[in-house]
Amino acid sequence: MESTMAWAIAEEVASENTPIASMTAPFPRRRFRGGFHTSICDIFRDPNSVTDCCALACCGILSNDRSLYLLTGERPPPLWRRVLMLFIVPASLIAAMDYFATDVTVVDDDGQSQTLKVPSGRLFLLLLSYVIAIVCLGFAKRRSTRKQIMTKLYEERSRELGEVVDARQLQSFIERHNLDTMRAHCCWSFCYAHDDVFIDETGAITRQCHMEDDDGIPEEDFCTRLWSCLSRMFWCCGCWCQCFGICALAQEEREVNRLTNNEEPKIDYLTFQPYSEYYPTIKYLRENQIKTPWRHFVALSELSNNLLKHVAVVLVMLLLVALSNIDSTFTWENLIVLLLTLGQAFFIEYLVHWRWNLFDLSLDSVIKYFASGFFLATPLAIIFESIMSTVAGFVFLVALSLVIASDSGLADELSADQKKGIKDLAVNHPAVFIFIQFVNAFFVAAIVEEMMKYFTYRMVVTPDLIPPQGRTSSTSNIGEGGRLHSCSVGARSTGSAVTVAMVSVALGFACCENLVYIFVYSPPSLDLELSTLLARSCFPVHPLCAAIQSIGVCKRDIEGDKRHGLGRIIFPAILLHGTFDFVLMLATYFQQVENIKEENDDDGTPAASRDEEQAGDAVSQLPVLICGLVLVITGYAYYVIQSRAQTRRLVTMDNVAIGQNSQLV
């Protein structure tokens, strides 16, 4: 009777939340909404989960493509078609809006007139309609993939129960979860109801929404707690916060990996080329210590070859643009600056990888890590920094309102002359501006960029470094205790491979960031572009912070120190990066204050006085450069000390492993 009542209660819950496996199933399984074996709330619950990181990249496009390919064998559209649909068509519409824009003359309060371009309303509506159509098609495709996964789950459950799959029951099951599918991939809502109800081995309904380690203790690190904090912002409506369906995509990829027995990574993203097609050649080069460059290029995977080919095509197109009069703002001088920017990153990569660690990490993996830092980490950082900047702006407004409330004269001055009022505010209330510079340096720049570099490193899965999650085969890279090892090499070599991989991601990120600062933020001047490149090249903060991060990653993944979660891994890098940015921002602020006090910020300054001012600015920047250099040297010294200590520990691990193997022989 009790078991019947328990099953009745379970069925009642299942009708509202999730189909739950029968108590007579061969082995108990947790069942969440839609029949999934992991919860949609489980994203970032497991610090080792690579699929959760991949769900962030490109709004989950790569993750959804891989899930669909593993499930059905369907390949995504070719790259040229995606570039055409997602970039060329919208860019053409934007260019047409600018070309057919109407010039409108506007007179301001001072009687000065300025001409504004008003874009065509029809073209704007066409662009908006196109974007909405692309978004809707994307979400429809994702819902279709989710329904196919649910169908596979229903069929699997029926086989476990020894039942025949009934088409009408399957259709009823899919329809019962239509609302859940809509919420999982919904473009007008960021919420999804918690789905943490399941039945344990005894048939009792329990609630649990976290991963547990072997000791039954929840595995949580900085990322887990931070994500939980963000998701619980919607506690009042009992919903789980997600954006662009990334939580659902991570859940689906975890499920597809289980259904298709791909929990151990076997194929590349994008090209879906199996590791077995190209990695044996890479392994042969490593085992025989072959240093011939062309042999390493011949051994590249299809994905790396495609990346190099596309880069070559883009450079040729830029060369043609520079040598022609198509775009007057991009000349051969700009092309040289661009090549120097790329060359600076490639030169450091050459030293770090080819010169010092050639056989610790393959050239194929280096290309993938660098490209991921360039194309994935930078856009993600821009998106999250924009969000954090909005929050920082709100904090600044709150602080500003408190200052205005305590200074009535400032409020009157701001209402009379806003520009002069802001200048007086900067001079008379430095604490407000110093505080906001601190927020921008540490919370907007340092935390976001260091986390994005770490997550991008976790996104890339190569046969050189396969993470602990899901390794089962005899060729596993996992040592005792679930530790990460590189194929056919020891712990020390694996540690070097991790460092090279993380530095490669940082170099790709820094290269893209340098291009943005040089060609977007700097005025179109060759001298300014070269000075910006030189200044940013003298302080390689990004690769240095990545190398510091690699110390913590090796402690966790190679040495097996579970205490080293994400917080401890990225904290030293955040401290160095944030302090460096904070010093630069403070210097800029104090320089602006001095200019305000001396009233030298007016364009009417005579030429001779302006030259003297520029010379004075150069002298005043000298202490800042010295501080930046001291910080970089301090960070490098910290890395060297920690790296040498870790190398000794890894060598000891290798010696112990060699001793154990000799005893077995």
UniProtKB/TrEMBL annotation:
<feature type="transmembrane region" description="Helical">
    <location>
        <begin position="121"/>
        <end position="140"/>
    </location>
</feature>
<dbReference type="InterPro" id="IPR026898">
    <property type="entry name" value="PrsW"/>
</dbReference>
<feature type="transmembrane region" description="Helical">
    <location>
        <begin position="366"/>
        <end position="384"/>
    </location>
</feature>
<feature type="transmembrane region" description="Helical">
    <location>
        <begin position="566"/>
        <end position="590"/>
    </location>
</feature>
<feature type="transmembrane region" description="Helical">
    <location>
        <begin position="622"/>
        <end position="641"/>
    </location>
</feature>
<keyword id="KW-0472">Membrane</keyword>
<keyword id="KW-1133">Transmembrane helix</keyword>
<protein>
    <submittedName>
        <fullName>Uncharacterized protein</fullName>
    </submittedName>
</protein>
<feature type="transmembrane region" description="Helical">
    <location>
        <begin position="335"/>
        <end position="354"/>
    </location>
</feature>
<feature type="transmembrane region" description="Helical">
    <location>
        <begin position="83"/>
        <end position="101"/>
    </location>
</feature>
<feature type="transmembrane region" description="Helical">
    <location>
        <begin position="431"/>
        <end position="448"/>
    </location>
</feature>
<dbReference type="Pfam" id="PF13367">
    <property type="entry name" value="PrsW-protease"/>
</dbReference>
<feature type="transmembrane region" description="Helical">
    <location>
        <begin position="307"/>
        <end position="323"/>
    </location>
</feature>
<keyword id="KW-0812">Transmembrane</keyword>
